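As a point of orientation, let us examine one representative protein, giving the amino acid sequence and backbone structure tokens.
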Amino acid sequence: MKQKQSGDSADKTSRRSIYLLPNLLTSASLFSGFYAIIAAIKGNYQAAAVAILISFVLDGLDGRVARWTRTTSRFGMEYDSLSDLVAFGVAPGILAFMWGLQDYGRLGWLAAFLYVATTALRLARFNTLSQSSNGSARDYFLGLPCPSAAAVLATSVLLCQYVGIFGPVRHVAVLIMVYGLSFLMVSNVRYHSFKEVRWLQQHPFSGMVVLILAIMVVAMEPKVTLFVLIGTYVISGPVLMSIRALRPRSLRSGAGHHSKDVSPGRDDGI
């Protein structure tokens, strides 16, 4: 009897440890986002950008770990959303303002505020759609995921430093980029979630080779390749939407039966 009780106690401890793991990853993502805010205020834009990218990676891990360990919960989803608002809303907004929007005065800080506000709206809509989907798996995000939008701003800072611009910049492209990302986050543009890549599941060895090659390409010049990869993903949504709009109506209706909308659960970004 004592052995059974000790076994049950060990199982509860093990389950509790597994439950804590995704929330610890979420906490680490929140910490990186908070550090990015401090670094941006101090003018250390590179450290702020790197911290946001670290949050980007951690945010992609916590949801997957929760699903792999079957420890998804309502608490985890809410905590993840609050963490995302800091790491991918407030932190990039402050970084964008301190780095490239200060000289635009009211127009600049309004752009930064709009970015934070649309991030909050994006997360609220995501959570609402997740509840209405009853947990069914989906292939697409509705609107640009906020981690991807934050990664665009972070990699833009790193790209500028790659070409020799280390301090604040004053270019209208930054202002347009912030407004554009804000619009895409609350738009109805579809973005692939990459949560389930069927080709990788069907060809695991080839997928491993492709992954190794991708890592090598990124490692060659990460400040450039990361910006190109994230930028390509951001552009892919409007491009694919335009292609679908130009298709004949019969083809669009046929494709609509096979495509799905918004991916529920934690907002894992790409």
Notes: Confidence is low (pLDDT under 50) at residues 255-264.
